[in-house]
Specification:
Chain A: One of its GO terms (molecular function) is transferase activity. Chain A: InterPro entries: CT_A_B, Cyclophilin-like_dom_sf, PxpC. The complex is a heterodimer of chains A (336) and B (236). With 336 residues, chain A is α+β, with helices and mostly antiparallel strands. Chain A has 2 domains: 187 residues, no CATH class; 123 residues, Cyclophilin-like (Cyclophilin, Beta Barrel). Chain A is built from 5 helices and 20 strands. Chain B is of the alpha+beta class. In chain B, the strands form 2 sheets. An 8-stranded mixed beta sheet of chain B has the order 10-8-9-7-6-11-5-12. In chain B, strand 6 and strand 7 form a beta hairpin. The longest helix of chain B has 17 residues. The mean pLDDT of chain B is 93. Classes of the chains: A alpha+beta (336), B alpha+beta (236). Chains A and B meet through strand 14, strand 18 and helix 4 of A and strand 2, strand 3 and strand 4 of B.
Chain lengths: 336, 236
């Protein structure tokens, strides 16, 4: 059976599927991808639904080798730098890795996360119905932890043959993150008007200590109008919580299931991935939208995802002849 | 009874809030609405998460819109169906200093002997309010006033699953080793969270619970049985 062997992995690379749903009531966080849209696109490019387990690659990058058999993969997410055996590829791409070929993904021009989906999915045991890794609880994924050198991931059966390299065309994944759309609440009433104005004026910068659990924001220090303790309640991904020190925290995929600080606003679903892809140090602002506006954006996104992912066979893109020779495709025959 | 507040946590989650206190009557209303919506299973409702005083409803706004969801929740709340009574558990707990790491120091700081603090803990009627913090980590109300204590200023290193803890005005049992600011006053052999068991989570919000003091020998024997998959807590 085919497998992927990890050569090197930066901190924070994990196996993720769409997330562990239905157990938040028992204190189990969904985990799942930081950028759900990019994760779905990578799987869709392989003709899979959005549930197959993939590798989420952090800014630390990853290097892996196909073992035992060929492995067909799709890569999408931030503009990472991707190469096979030292030959550069586009950042969003599908291809088949031959046995013993090395695929390398490194932080590139933009973005903080990228997804390596695999035809057949990463075959790790489903825990409470999901293969998503929640490292903090040691649950799911590969042994409940981040990937490291020497790990060998089994690949599920896909029933699909090898495919020629093709660039994934999803320009709408290249999402500028200058403004992140939010809906005020659920506890915006814990803040006076001028503090809500300061929240929208920003500007905010993501702190380097951010991770899958939360994005820590540097910017104006907010004050609470009526204390900073609330009786803990359930929190969703994208909740902007303001603890006692007045520095907002955006709770993300690995967040705690409940929180005891007021949540001034919530990032809308379609902007979760945009927010996740912001790199530490890059300034951005929050912008208020209504529920109706957010639902309309969601509808557009769902329509885009329901269509086939557009792919351009790489012979038609600008590739060096050396690269094409390496792929043995110079005769110009494009299948698939 | 006051009408609940409907708060938005984004365009895909609605918070139905019944109050702003840790209170059994408020929690009962949360759990009653939770049970009603679990039974109805409206299309587009993805996940229901009850906590102390509110119910978090995650939904797909492309399938069910907010107004429909609010109407459903209002209808269920106004119907006023009382929550089905929860289970009553007796959970064995060892207060021996070998496993109750903080009990001596904790009791001394409250002017109590370790034996007195353990007796108060074992005599209390606890209520499972909700889960949070970590998988299987249940928050327990009913802490005797004499055992109320602020949490530690700095979290202590992780301690084993089964650690019975108090902190703030609450009790809890650790299920996965994680650093926390709570005080360890005992240890239960029961696995409140066991992935290979059905149900994986033993307690439900709204359940009642008492700790039954056991000695170190009983702990060892029950721990062996629990490790083999046998439940050692019982319903009373």
């Amino acid at each position: 059976m085919a497998s992927l062997e990890i050569r090197t992995a930066g901190p924070g690379c994990t196996v993720q599927d769409a997330g562990r749903r239905g157990h938040l009531r028992y204190g189990v966080t969904a985990a799942g991808p930081m950028d759900p849209l990019a994760f779905s696109v990578a799987n869709k490019a392989l003709g899979q639904d959005g549930e197959a387990a993939a590798i989420e690659v952090s800014l630390g990058g990853i290097e892996l080798v196909a073992r035992d058999a060929a492995v067909t993969v799709a890569i999408a997410g931030g503009a990472f730098s991707v190469s096979i055996e030292g030959r550069a590829l586009p950042a969003s791409v599908t291809l088949t890795l031959k046995p013993d070929e090395t695929l390398r993904i490194r932080a590139g021009a933009a973005g903080a996360w990228c997804y390596l989906a695999v035809a057949g999915g990463i075959d790790v045991p489903a825990i409470l119905g999901s293969r998503a890794t929640h490292t903090r609880a040691g649950l799911g994924g590969f042994e409940g932890r981040a990937l490291k050198a020497g790990d060998r991931l089994a690949i599920g059966e896909s029933g699909r043959g090898a495919r020629e390299p093709a660039e994934i065309v999803a320009r709408w994944l290249d999402r500028p993150a200058k403004d992140i759309r939010v809906i005020l609440g659920p506890q915006a009433d814990f803040f006076a008007e001028d503090q809500i104005a300061a929240f929208f004026t920003g500007p905010w910068v993501l702190s380097p200590r951010s991770d899958r659990m939360a994005g820590f924001l540097d910017g104006p220090v907010l004050t609470h109008a009526k204390g900073h303790d609330i009786v803990s309640d359930g929190v969703v991904m994208g909740a902007v919580q303001v603890p006692g020190d007045g520095r907002p925290i955006v709770l993300m995929a690995d967040r705690q299931p409940t929180g005891g600080y007021p949540k001034i606003a919530t990032v809308i679903g379609p902007d979760l991935g945009r927010f996740a892809q912001i790199r530490p140090g890059a300034p951005f602002r929050f912008r208020a939208v209504t529920i109706e506006e957010a639902v309309a954006v969601r509808r557009e996104e769902a329509a885009r995802l329901s269509r086939e992912v557009e792919m351009i066979p790489m012979l038609r893109t600008e590739l060096s002849s050396e690269f094409l020779l390496g792929l043995n495709l110079i005769d110009g025959v494009v299948r698939d | 009874m006051t009408a609940p507040r409907f708060l938005d946590a984004g365009e895909a989650a609605l918070v139905v809030e019944f109050g702003d206190a840790v209170d059994p009557a408020i929690n009962d209303r949360v759990l009653a609405l939770d049970a009603a919506l679990v039974a109805q299973a409206p299309e587009g409702v993805l996940e229901l998460t009850p906590s102390y005083r509110s119910l978090l409803i995650q939904y797909d706004p492309l399938v069910i819109d907010r107004a429909t969801l609010v109407a459903l929740a209002e209808e269920a709340t106004e119907a006023g169906e009382a929550r089905a009574p929860g289970a009553s558990w007796v959970v064995p707990c060892c207060y021996d200093p070998a496993v109750a790491e903080d009990l001596g120091e904790f009791a001394a700081a409250r002017g109590l002997s370790p034996e007195k603090a353990a007796a108060l803990h074992a005599a209390a009627d606890w209520r499972v309010y909700c889960y949070g913090f970590a998988p299987g980590f249940a928050y327990l109300g009913g802490l005797p006033k004499a055992l109320a204590a602020p949490r530690r200023a700095t979290p202590r290193p992780p301690f084993p699953p089964g650690s019975v803890m108090v902190g703030g005005g609450l009790g809890a049992v650790a299920t996965v080793p994680m650093p926390t600011g709570w005080h360890v006053v005992g240890r239960t052999p029961e696995r409140l969270f066991a992935l290979d068991r059905d149900p994986a989570f033993l307690l439900s919000p709204g359940d009642a619970l008492r700790f039954e003091a056991i000695d170190a020998n009983a702990f060892r024997s029950l721990d062996t049985r629990a490790a083999a998959g046998e439940p050692v807590a019982r319903k009373s």
